[in-house]
Design brief:
Elements (H helix, E strand, L loop, with lengths): L1 H10 L6 H8 L3 H5 L5 H23 L5 H14 L4 H14 L6 H23 L9 H11 L10 H14 L4
Length: about 180
């Protein structure tokens, strides 16, 4: 799965082939075909595994009692894996290519669970007075997931970026 991720990030979905993966793994293509019928099946399995691991991480973070720390750790999860967000977009390509979404449904459910966890976190922050109650939680959730995509031009440490992102979410950009 690690090599699948690397190859997807380097080559993209359309250039991803079992031949390349087999070369990286130093195995024959037939070995990969023993486990996966085609590249879509392998990529769906990879994305499912990735999403499942993030759901489990989110569950742990939601157990933190301090709301600011909880928010920061939630952001940390996605900042740490921001490079993989582009791979998740591949899911849409697979659905379009296969002209069906039944096989990707479990992955979509995991993604939805992460989204629901973000809304739970935002609503808790509203209840505790960290976020204004009149700000739409869907907008905040989308803002969180888009903030992590901003390149680190300033070469900040992870902690500096997290602190700045959290400050922006909780206090905005106004004076």
């Amino acid at each position: 799965m690690i090599e699948t991720e690397k190859l997807l990030l380097e080559k993209g979905y359309n250039s991803f082939h079992f031949r390349l993966l087999a070369e990286r793994l130093e195995v024959g293509r037939s070995t990969i075909y023993e486990y996966y019928a085609n590249k879509e099946e392998l990529i769906i399995a990879y994305i499912h595994s990735f999403a499942f691991e993030r759901v489990e991480e989110c569950k742990k973070v939601l157990q933190i009692s301090n709301i600011k720390e909880k928010f920061k750790e939630f952001l940390r999860i996605f900042l740490k894996y921001s490079h993989v967000q582009q791979v998740i977009i591949v899911l849409t390509q697979i659905e379009e290519e296969l002209k069906e979404s039944e096989r990707t449904k479990p992955v979509r459910e995991l993604s939805r669970q992460i989204y629901l966890y973000s809304l739970e976190l935002i609503n808790e922050a509203k209840e505790k007075g960290l976020i204004r109650k009149n700000v739409n939680e869907i907008l905040i959730s989308h803002m969180m997931f888009n903030l992590i995509q901003i390149p680190n031009f300033q070469k900040q440490t992870e902690e500096e970026r997290l602190t700045e992102m959290l400050d922006l979410i909780l206090h905005g950009v106004g004076a």
